[in-house]
Amino acid sequence: MRKRIFALLSVLALSLVILAGCKSRESAEEPSTEPSKEPSTEPTKEPSKEIEPEIARKAPDFTLNSFDGNTISLSNYKGKIVVLEWFSLECPFVIRHYGGKPTMINLANKYRDRNVVWFAVNSTGHTTPEANTEFAKKYKLPYPILDDRSGKVGRAYGAKTTPHMYVIDTRGSITYQGAIDNDKRGRRRQGVINYVDKALAELTGDKEVTTTDTMSYGRDVMYAR
User: Pairing between strand 174-178 and 145-147?
Assistant: First the structure.
């Protein structure tokens, strides 16, 4: 009796194995409902490697009072080349460009009759109107110092140091930003490049600005906290 039961169980187990194999083959032969994974014959598009330059942007508009009592709006100077010089009368780097050699004043006078206007911008939070007025008289500035004690305009432009220079073309785009020159310590005797002078010469000569972006140097802008 036991042998007969064992034989029946063996036959049943073998039948189950055969059925499982058939099911497996049927599944393998069924057409796949997934999309074909064959490589596409269409050409792939590579991502653009062109990056928008930091300086290729519209200059933020602003309206500021000058320390000599006027109101200056950038929008009023459309069609002109505008130079913005971030300024602090406490900064030794700024003083060097006014006391030792009047770099800024000389440049402003050089291009004054060539459709260029120049503004110094003081974003020092604790500066006073009296100190700025006295400085302007002492050094006979041919341009106004604008009052940005709130720091709103300086932050809009990303001004980091004094000086930090911006040259805006006749279309209102920043075409140069950075250092006044490549002589951080003021000790070079040869090979000094004044980047602002270079940019202005190119713009007033209807040429493209070739040096558009450098690292500014000087003391950090002392924004109000």
Answer: unpaired
Q: What angle do CA 222, 54, 78 make, to 5 degrees?
A: 80
Beta bridge partner(s), residue 165? 85, 178
The proportion of the chain whose per-residue pLDDT surpasses 90, expressed as a percent, equals 70
> CB of 121 within 8 A of CB of 146?
yes
- Within a 10 A sphere around the Cβ of 218, how many other Cβ atoms? 21
Q: Would you say 114 and 96 are in contact if contact means Cβ atoms under 8 Å apart?
A: no
Q: Tell me the CB-side half-sphere exposure of residue 92, using CA atoms within 13 A.
A: 3
CA distances, 131 to each of 30, 65, 121, 147, 153 (Å): 89, 15, 14, 12, 20
| Residues forming a β-bridge with 167 | 83, 176
Determine how many CB atoms are found less than 10 A away from the CB of residue 45.
6
pLDDT in tens, 92-115: 999 999 997 899 999 999 999 999
| 53 Cβ contact list (under 8 Å, min separation 6) | 212, 213
